[in-house]
Amino acid sequence: MPTKSRQIAIMGFRSVGKSSLTIQFVENQFVDAYDPTIENTFEKELKVLGHEYQLKIIDTAGQDEYSIFPQSLTVNLHGYVLVYSVTSEKSFEVVQIIHEKLLDMTGKISVPMVLVGNKTDLHMERVISFEQGKQLADSWSAAFIESSAKQNESVVEIFKSVLNLIEKQDGNTQKEEDKCVIL
Q1: Domains in the chain and their CATH numbers?
Q2: Is the pTM of this model over 0.85?
Q3: Alpha helices per DSSP H over the chain
Q4: What averages of pLDDT result for each successive group of 10 residues across the chain (183 residues)?
Q5: Distance between CA atoms of residues 36 and 58, nearest Å
């Protein structure tokens, strides 16, 4: 079976952990301190439900409510990961603005998207509940995952989930239980 190429953009307010999630996924390491991202591209192969994927992940610069949405992020992209920090009300507000701008730019009512509440390891600083994140994702018809890049919690699931949504949009749905196994 041929390898499928998929491009995914990871977006959100600054310092929510977009690069940490991406580097944890691609290189299996947590980077504690780094310079703010301008824009980086990472590649990784991943196998999901028997399909090989060559992922190209565009780790964007942090956006705020005034950022102009780059047209380049609507061309040849298959899916999106929108990230906020569970410790930041502001990042939760900004992710909603990014979502609106994304739909405006693509001209679609929905795109394959995973909403990610990152930094769950910071229990004492949490201000956004799981329920708030889930409710927002449901209102967008998006998948929802809470994660910790630092503890490598649910990081791979984020990218598997967005791939499944891309396949579903392309009409290529395959559930685990649909597979026939002869022993």
Answers
A1: 4-178 (3.40.50.300)
A2: yes
A3: 18-27, 89-106, 130-140, 155-169
A4: 90 93 94 73 90 92 76 83 98 96 89 97 97 98 97 96 91 54 57
A5: 14
